């Protein structure tokens, strides 16, 4: 059951800029596809268009090859989970999970059996009699998943499902969703602004910015070959250096990056350098060739197991380098020190 979106546009006010602008993508069958982007990028609107909760001005939505663009939400047979649990507070967990089945007037025994199955699937067998108010945030969200899955949806649409939870529960539920997906194999679309979440649990990523698709591909494509400075900095906080092509390399001041640029000799290009792709060394090793280059440590900031080093290159460019704490302690540098910086990988 793949999801295909063709040239979708949704404008909330006439003449205003569209929330979703000419978006096309393909969410492959059986995979988790993330819609990733900053707040306001149009991710939720896109998901709501696919669910049938919004109507597009232009474009089509195909689920499993069937054009659903003009079908109401009940006829699309999609499971939806939102950030705010949207559970019925006056109903028990069992009644919440049974809701969609009762709406569809399924026989009582079948409903009960399906609810039991769903409670087992989300590992809440013991809590069927409780009300949502008696559950933790993570448990409530698992009930929301059980309710969405009970109707045997063709696809699962998730809008920041872990957004309201604290970091630890979020990480637990991420693992849980991964396992759930392995056991159901459902085509899943996940809206998230968290690049770590997208890279960790999805097989396909659609990066959105200003209502448009900035890039789509596998997590590796997005991370290793960002299509624009926006994608490079949004995913993994790459340093963006402006340089030009010189003898098959990218020259940034005196730094020559060994990346094969597609551009012609002399042309201006952006090079992207990940914070963990720069190796710092204290000693001046009189290196041959253009790299390593010398830089000055401008600022140090400790972040958990890492130290962020803000380096000033001779070109005047600033580069943020991320050094594991143990490596940093061995390096023994302080602010104002000169260091050698060996750029291990860069992309253009
Ligand atoms: P995201 O999910 O990426 O944060 P949204 O899809 O929620 O982005 O919003 C995209 C844009 O559309 C924003 O500028 C938002 O203000 C606007 N928007 C979303 N829903 C509505 C609505 N119901 N009415 C008017 N504008 C809306």
UniProtKB/TrEMBL annotation:
Q: Which domain of life does the UniProt lineage start with?
A: Bacteria
UniProt key word Transport: yes
Q: Which GO terms describe its biological process?
A: quaternary ammonium group transport
Q: Which Pfam families match?
A: ABC_tran (PF00005), CysA_C_terminal (PF17850)
**Domain ABC transporter, residue spans:** 3-235
The answer to keyword Nucleotide-binding applying to this record is: yes
Xref: PROSITE patterns: ABC_TRANSPORTER_1, ABC_TRANSPORTER_2
Gene Ontology MF term list: ATP binding; ATP hydrolysis activity
Give UniProt keywords alphabetically: ATP-binding, Nucleotide-binding, Transport
* PANTHER family with a match to the protein in the record: SPERMIDINE/PUTRESCINE IMPORT ATP-BINDING PROTEIN POTA, SPERMIDINE_PUTRESCINE IMPORT ATP-BINDING PROTEIN POTA
Its recorded name reads Sulfate ABC transporter ATP-binding protein
What lineage does the source organism belong to?
Bacteria, Pseudomonadati, Myxococcota, Myxococcia, Myxococcales
